[in-house]
Amino acid sequence: MPKFAALARSAALVTAVALIPATTASFAQVEGSAGPEFAKLFAVYQRVKASYVDPVDDKALVKGAINGMLASLDPHSAYLDGSDLQRLETMIDGNYSGLGLSVVMDDGAVKVISPFRGSPAEQAGVKAGDYITHLDGKLIYGGDLDDAVNQMRGPAGSQIRLTIYRAGRDEPFDVTVTRGVIELEPVTFELKPGNIGVITVNEFSRDVGADVYSAWNKLRTQAAGRINGLVLDLRSNPGGSLDEAVAMSDLFLDKGRIVSQRGRAKGETLLYDAETVYRGQIAQGVPMIVLIDAGTASASEIVAGALQDHRRAVIMGVRSFGKGSVQTLLPLGSDAALKLTTARYYTPSGHSVQEGGIEPDIEVPQLSDPDLAKRAKFQLRESDLRGHLVNEAALKDEDLEKDKREDPRFQQTSEQLDKQGIKDFQLYYALETLRRTSPTSVASRN
Q1: Which of residues 155, 183, 211 is at a domain's end?
Q2: Which of the residues 323, 325, 368, 383 is marked catalytic?
Q3: Choosing from 309, 325, 368, 384, which is the catalytic residue?
Q4: Among 298, 320, 368, 444, the one annotated catalytic
Q5: What is the crossing angle of helices 208-222 and 242-252, to 10°?
Q6: What are phi and psi of 292, to 5 degrees?
Q7: Which of 6, 89, 215, 281 fits 254 for a cystine, CB–CB 3.0-4.6 Å?
Q8: Are residues 179 and 205 in the same domain?
């Protein structure tokens, strides 16, 4: 099973994933009451095979039935075979040719969660919240997400024309993107003036915990051992490996719970604690800020929630995506797999991230975005996805927006900031906050 060997090397897809063994004996017996429903399914199959206007392939019918079954559950459960599994391998390896987009299907439309940083899509101006309606002039609305993703993939150097609808624009517009080899850099770092370190984590693929550890040591070398503050940038990070999220959190914590997951099946309730991956904590006593936004999802929210609940870092930015569920990859034979939502995860304080996400300690809007006000109305989060898993507390969107009063600190326009040379207001604000912060003040509340 070479495909599954590649998957098993990293417990990561595009969301927090835990791998568990699956055998024939582990599948539940079909309940007697479900017999009539299965009879209906078989009757439909027979009618389609006998009467549909064109001959229909059995494999296509069965796959369609499986996809329909899983689509009735939640947006993250899926059936994977053939090219889907191959695509999963390339995503795990972090090396493929394409545009560098994280997308979902939203009521029949392909919607951008976020472009990967430095990707061809980001360089061409594609933004989170954009709807892609056509590819090279061909309408993709109402189609299959996998088909759309396959069309966007292609040889490096080739071009594709995206037709985009963006909130605030009167009409759709075209963007031509040149495909490139997407070699995702999970971790990048930079030493800013004042010996403030910035570590950016773009995804949670293999060895991200070790990469962050290495980045911290290199920052210390550049700063001659004196780091006065640290920004951990998790914005537009769609998630990845649950194990790597735990490992990275453990770098900054030396005691207590990191995350817990609770499921219905036996063995799906698991607890993850500090000091299980790394001993001690790096950056001890260093003031720390974690930046999040609406594209911060899943594994990223685990890290932000753990550091927030343990009062190790100040969380800054805007409310995160709100994906608090765990998907388990269950092999089905040698060439197919089931990605099934099997548990919810909870922060150390017992807070469920599902729907509500992580609330920042200090809300800082991205004022350097000229489309901020217009796009905020259409910002996509977990709670906006059709069929999403409901938070056990039954949260309502209006309950999540607590304060609509204008903050006098955040009145500058993107044009004013641009004239000052400020391209990323959230990062600028975090750096300025740390420069005013001593190691004994609120940002290092450890």
Answers
A1: 183
A2: 323
A3: 309
A4: 298
A5: 30
A6: -135, 160
A7: 281
A8: no
Q: For residues 304-308, give the mean pLDDT.
A: 97
Q: What is the pLDDT of residue 387?
A: 53
Question: Domain boundary residue among 167, 183, 199?
Answer: 183
- For residue 303, what pLDDT band results from cuts at 50, 70 and 90? very high
* 83 catalytic per annotation: no
Strands 288-292, 314-317: pairing is parallel
Q: In the annotation, is 323 catalytic?
A: yes
Q: Which domain holds residue 147?
A: 96-183
Read off the pLDDT of residues 319-344 as tens digits, 9 standing for 90 and up.
Answer: 998 888 888 878 887 788 888 888 88
Q: Closest Cα partner for 14 from 358, 300, 333?
A: 300
Q: Residue 49 falls within a domain, yes or no?
A: no
pLDDT tens-digit profile of 276-286? Answer: 999 999 999 99
What does each C-alpha distance from 82 to 8, 105, 337, 443 come to in angstroms? Answer: 17, 21, 10, 48
From CA 293, how far away is CA 426, in angstroms rounded?
A: 10
Q: Is the Cβ–Cβ distance between 429 and 364 less than 8 Å?
A: yes
Active site residue 72: no
DSSP conformation letters of 3-36? HHHHHHTSSBSSSBEEE----GGGSPPPPGGGHH
